[in-house]
Design brief:
about 270 residues; alpha/beta; TIM Barrel; 8-stranded parallel β-sheet; two-stranded antiparallel sheet; 10 strands; globular; binds ribulose-5-phosphate
Length: about 270
């Protein structure tokens, strides 16, 4: 691995802990104005708490402060909406653009076991070929799609394929026996959060994933759809970087939720 690629990876994975809290806010690229991301200003206070922001170029250009110190991982695949066939994706952002936007990584979805499986795998191979010319790490995202069985056998297959094709890190879902997915994958794995679940459950999932060997999260809805997004990102960060338990992290979330309620009450504002 050359200097540029390693240096970019060190902007995503905190060199002190070897782990990362990525904030995923790319959902609009196929879902439109998702709950919690309708007004992108909502995520502004979360960004300094993340090591890396996973985002599309449109949101990056229009909504993110270029002075941010949080690194950027750019979603470069797209095409279909939730109304179409999700796996029908192509690479839609050039490597030159990723470099111009000062991305520290690029990410795309693969659809193992779905229609267009072979095309998305081939797209990943080509993206890795191109990215390595620029020292750009590639994140492969597995198991997107409603009908996928998210168990260790399937996720293990999808993550291993992503790594074999050349992805430098992989995002997948948490499942029972997650350690088996980690063991079979020679590159770092981060977990997506999936649909919004109760805060304590999301924190337990994070703790279990880290204990099973995940190198962090690339989490969206369980942070920005929480009743305290700031509390949740701080809580997740404590688990990922400080080894906090889910219970300890939950206390961080609750404390932050209470203090923001007090601030709102003190300012005589109504909570929206
Ligand atoms: C969608 C994505 C999202 O970034 C990913 O699913 C993470 O977000 P969430 O935690 O909301 O699942 O890649 O294709």
């Amino acid at each position: 691995m050359d200097f540029g690629l390693k240096n970019r990876l060190s902007k995503i994975f905190n060199p002190k802990t070897g782990k990362t809290v990525m904030l995923a806010v790319d959902h609009g690229y196929f879902q439109g104005p998702t709950t919690g991301l309708r007004d992108m200003k909502n995520i502004t206070p979360l960004i300094p708490n993340a090591d890396c922001l996973f985002v599309t170029r449109g949101i990056l250009r229009n909504c993110i402060d270029p002075k941010t110190e949080t690194s950027i991982c750019l979603r470069v695949s797209g095409g279909p909406s939730i109304l179409g066939e999700l796996s029908n994706e192509d690479i839609i952002v050039s490597m030159e653009e990723a470099v111009r936007l000062n991305a520290s990584g690029v990410g795309m979805s693969i659809f193992v076991g779905a229609s267009n499986e072979d095309r998305t795998i081939s797209n990943l191979g080509q993206l890795v070929n191109e990215a390595e010319r620029y020292g750009m790490p590639v994140l492969a995202i597995t198991a997107v799609g409603k009908e996928m069985v998210r168990d260790a056998r399937y996720l293990g297959l999808a993550c291993r394929m992503a790594a074999e094709i050349g992805a430098h890190f992989v995002k997948t879902y948490y499942c029972d026996d997650f350690h088996k997915v980690v063991e079979g994958c020679p590159v770092p794995i981060v977990i997506a959060g999936g649909k919004k679940i109760p805060e304590m459950d999301a924190l337990l999932m994070t703790e279990n994933a880290i204990k099973a060997g995940a190198k962090g999260v690339d989490m969206g809805r369980n942070i920005f759809q929480s009743d305290s997004p700031i509390g949740m990102i701080k809580a997740v960060k404590a688990i990922v970087h400080k080894g906090a338990t889910a219970q300890e992290a939950y206390e961080i979330y609750q404390k932050s939720k209470k203090s923001s309620a007090v601030e709102i009450a003190d300012a005589g504002m109504e909570k929206v």
